[in-house]
Amino acid sequence: MTTQSDASVLLDVTGGVGWITLNRPKAYNALNTDMAERLLDAVIRCDEDDKIRAVVITGNGASFCAGGDIRQMIDSSASEGNAALFLKTLTVSLHAAIATIAYMSTRCFRRRSSSWGRRNSPTNSPAGRPPRSGMPSGS
């Protein structure tokens, strides 16, 4: 599944991995409000797809991400008289995306930890011994 190539954020799912690409190479992938919202949308789509086991965020072009889009902040400040509104809008979307990624990571860790614990409990280890730290039973 791939979004349009002219979009500021691309999503491609291959082999259980969601590849999110920041796609404003001429602006060194500087984040503007549209890009932040699209990034959040892509992360949510990854979270909702049970087939996705990992997410990689990358940047198209020479730079991963140059930070916030200063041009949009200046334009926003000139038109609305308030740069803080731009920063708040950008920050809310980015924080939501980061929180969603953190939630996905925590949920995945819990799922793996609980299944590892069941498989490697002392009753399932060789000779009833507790498994060695970090090692699968039977190793």
Describe this structure in words.
The protein is an alpha+beta fold. It has one domain (9-113): 2-enoyl-CoA Hydratase, Chain A, domain 1. The chain has three helices and three strands; from the N terminus they run ββαβαα. The protein has helices at residues 33-48, 70-80, 83-119, and strands at residues 9-14, 17-22, 54-59. The radius of gyration is 21 Å and the shape is globular.
Topology:
Blueprint (H helix, E strand, L loop, with lengths): L8 E6 L2 E6 L10 H16 L5 E6 L10 H11 L2 H37 L20
Parallel strand pairs: 2-3
Antiparallel strand pairs: 1-2
**Order of helices and strands, N to C?**
EEHEHH
* Count of discrete domains: 1
- What is the count of β-strands? 3
Give the distance, in angstroms, between the N- and C-terminal Cα atoms.
39 Å
List the quaternary state of the chains. single chain
**Rg calc:** 21 Å
Strand order of the largest sheet: 1-2-3
- SS content category: alpha+beta
CATH architecture: Alpha-Beta Complex
State the name of the first-level CATH class: Alpha Beta
- Share of helical residues: 40-55%
Largest sheet: 3 strands, mixed
Strand content: 5-15%
Instruction: Please count the helical segments.
Output: 3
Query: For this structure, what is the CATH homologous superfamily?
Result: 2-enoyl-CoA Hydratase, Chain A, domain 1
Question: Runs with pLDDT <50, length 5+?
Answer: none
Could you say what the CATH topology is called?
A: 2-enoyl-CoA Hydratase, Chain A, domain 1
